[in-house]
Amino acid sequence: MCGCELQADGNKGGFMQHGYDGRTFITFDKETLTWVAPQPQAQITQRKWDADPAQNQYSKAYLEKECIEWLEKYLSYGKETLLRTEPPEVTMSSKTEVEDGMETHVCRLHGFYPREIDASWTRDGEVWLQDTLRGSVAPNADGTFHAWLSIRIDPKERGRYRCHVEHDGLQEPLDVALEELNLGLIIGCVVAGLVLVCAIVGILAFIYILKRHQDDHNATPSELSSLQVIANLEQGPEAPSLERK
Q: How many CB atoms within 10 Å of residue 163?
């Protein structure tokens, strides 16, 4: 494996190494122009390669010049994608534990690029690690990333906590406060649901009564006579007798 890097201050880094059977076998030190053998079995190769200083000088030149040129060329091809920045979209969700009344708040970070992001929970402005969980940064289908972190707190101290986010796509760090759990809104939703259920029941009852009325209206004379007999029987023995027509 070999690789190189060009730092912002102009310094150039690079590495070149060979492995064998899953372990590092021999590595190149470009500052001393020598090879390092971490395994005793590589010492024969080390002595042979160090005996050719011209080849070692070429290896250093490759890492600091040719490799850097290729790196800059590849970067120019994909700079619109590789050098872009997409700020994270921060959303909060909350729930209250029924058992003890504690609250769990989740800070979700969506659609950010590049991958590196610094997100943490703070309490009174200081990083707070107690009762916190953190998900790993994962990729989205469009090449951006997402992540989350949660915290479990006493609802009486909700105002002390913030989700603190730093990212290259942000002009300045974000400090997002926890959402208030609006009890009035929850009660209003429940009442609205009950009103809707009552309205549906009333409509069904009205349809049922209307259908019964239509059925009575469309009944034949014989059916009407039967209905009148039933009505007289329900009124008791003193009800007038039914006259057939």
A: 24
Structure token digits, residue 6 = 């060009």
Note the pLDDT of residue 221. Answer: 53
Helices vs strands, H then E, count in the chain: 5, 13
CB 106 within 8 Å of CB 93: yes
How far apart are the C-alpha atoms of 62 and 68, rounded to whole Å?
8
Summarised one tens digit per residue, pLDDT across range 185-233 is 344 444 555 667 677 767 777 676 777 666 655 555 555 455 454 455 4
Q: Is 26:37 a contact under the CB 8 Å cutoff?
A: yes
Of all helices (H) and strands (E), which one includes residue 210? helix 183-217
* Ranges under pLDDT 70 in the chain: 180-195, 197, 201, 206, 208, 212-245
Whats the size of the chain, residue-wise? 245
Rounded to the nearest 10 degrees, the angle between the axes of helix 53-61 and helix 43-50 is 90
**Other CB atoms within 10 A of residue 211 CB:** 10
Residue 206: predicted pLDDT: 67
Token output for 47: 């002595």
Question: What's the pTM?
Answer: 0.51
What's the rounded Cα separation, in Å, for the pair 12 and 6? 5
Per-residue confidence (pLDDT) for residue 171, from 0 to 100: 93
* Cα–Cα distances in angstroms (integers) from residue 212 to residues 142, 204, 205, 245, in the given order: 60, 12, 11, 25
